Amino acid sequence: MSALDVAAMPARIEAWLGSQGTPARVATYVLIAGGFSRVMAKVVLEWPGGGTETLVMRADPPPELATLASDRSAEHRLLAALSAASTLPVPGVRWFVEDEAWFGSKALFIEYVPSRTLQAHFDAGGDPAHAAERFAELMAAVAATEPSQLGLAAPHDWHAYIDGHLARWRRIETDHVEALPIIRYLVAWLDRNRPRPLPFRLVHGDFQAANVLVADDGTWRLIDWEFSRIGDPREDLGYYNAYSGAVPPNLAALDLDGYLRRFRERTGLSEDDVNPFTFAWFTILSTTTAVEGLHHGCAGMARGERRGANVSFNTILSTVGYTNFLDAIGQLEALR
Amino acid sequence: MITGPTTEQLLIDVARELREVILPRIEDATVRVSVEMLEQVVRSCAVRAAHELAWMAEEEAAILAFAGRVPSSPGLVRALEAHAAHVAERGEALHLDDRVARYRSASAVLSEAIDAAFASGDGALAAESREIVLARNSHEIEARPGFYFPGRA
Question: Are A172 and A180 in contact (CB under 8 A)?
């Protein structure tokens, strides 16, 4: 059983609600497209006393269909801390169900926000230039969030943290079903060209326009925190650059100097630390988690352990990442 | 066996059917995303069926030439020996699995050669390793014609 089972899930949710002493009828359970790695569904509840409530259920796909690994408990802890801190616009968590027996995996029930994504806004003709400043502000607000504000522990040492990133890159190759020379090249290059260390901050981990909801009232919400962590404040900048290279528009590239300036102003970081070179360096480094998941999917399929359109599509997505990394290194070498 | 239409032609037509006939009739958004992925995978398979044997052979030749120019290291020596043994044993077999195994063995040589190039401190060798990786990626780019992210709107 998983949250993909649209026939079974309404009764399962009703049973869980009943077990919590809050019985309700599930009037609607509809899968939502857009998330590659998680199963998401729009759930409309009808309460016994009248009234309805709409939520988004977020759970894991069955293991054989999984593309990327992340932990719903960690995501819940962070979302709860962010909601309490009220420094960033995130949808509130209504319930967290840790017992996997109910829905086949841990599950989050999150506030439903009538909205469309910022990516959908652009695809419908929205002007990227009008959104760039606000987008930079939101990204910088994440990067300005200190671990202590969220009650989270920071790594002890920046170089050790980066060593850990590079070791994860190396493991992508050693865990794969074949040699990946491009990974070896990227690690060697990154190691040789490390930027200056910075204090640790909150990292979203998948900062992109499709993870920004533009609510019907015009407010924004930043969603999909499954890859969030405490890390270098430049990681989201780099990740976004890599991602939007494949999924335009790239709001940072519209006016990179202006974008980085706004980021520096909001975070208090200096130009020595946030500049086109570090932007490109983190473009490569910051995608480890996603690249790791893509390769695990490919390796699993090659071993006959995984299947599905999402997994086979990883063979294409991983090469898109390679192209972006190589482009970024090319840009950096040109800056020398 | 029938060779015409070729595997490439067959797969291109399967992708066209998915795109032009099946996709417009799908109303379920999640199924639509899956079919958009499959359509791209099938197109990629068409390109690979047409070219990957030649690409693997071309890349292997460039890798071995590069490996001969970088300073030796224990890892590189091991990888070269393993590759030579593989070629001696199954090197001329033409089944795809055999060619893929040979290519993987050559790829392991390239990984070790890249490490050796960077470890040498020779900027020209490091730059040369980049060129080989770029050539490999150019084939990967060719193998994803008309790429787009499914369902992101």
Answer: yes
Per-residue pLDDT of B119-149, as tens digits, reads: 999 999 999 999 999 999 999 999 999 998 8
List the domain boundaries for chain B: 7-142
Cβ A311 vs Cβ A297: under 8 Å? yes
Task: List, for residues A254-299, the tens digit of each pLDDT value.
Answer: 999 999 999 999 999 999 999 999 998 998 887 777 788 888 889 9
Residue B131 — φ and ψ, nearest 5°? -65, -40
Position A176 confidence tier, pLDDT thresholds 50, 70, 90: very high
| A70 Cα to chain B: minimum distance (Å) | 20
**How close does chain B come to A19, measured CA to CA in Å?**
30
Picking from A192, A193, A168, A170, the residue whose alpha carbon sits closest to that of residue A180 is A170
Return the H-helix or E-strand segment holding B100.
Answer: helix B96-119
| CATH superfamily of the domain spanning A116-334 | Aminoglycoside phosphotransferase (APH), C-terminal lobe (3.90.1200.10)
pLDDT exceeds 50 at position B153? no
For residue A134, the model assigns a pLDDT of 96
Q: How far apart are CA A271 and CA A259, in angstroms?
A: 12
pLDDT over 70 (residue A191): yes
Q: Which of residues 15-34 of B touch A (CB under 8 A)?
A: 29-30, 32-34
| Side chain identity, residue A298 | C
pTM for the whole structure: 0.77
The answer to whether A294 touches A271, Cβ cutoff 8 Å, is: no
Between CA A325 and CA A331, with CA A330 as vertex, the angle to 5 degrees is 100
Across the interface, whether the CB atoms of A210 and B152 are under 8 A apart is answered yes
Please list every residue in chain A whose beta carbon sits closer than 8 Å to the beta carbon of residue B34: 308-310
Separation between Cα atoms, residue A117 and residue A115, nearest integer Å: 7
* Domain A9-112 architecture: 2-Layer Sandwich (3.30)
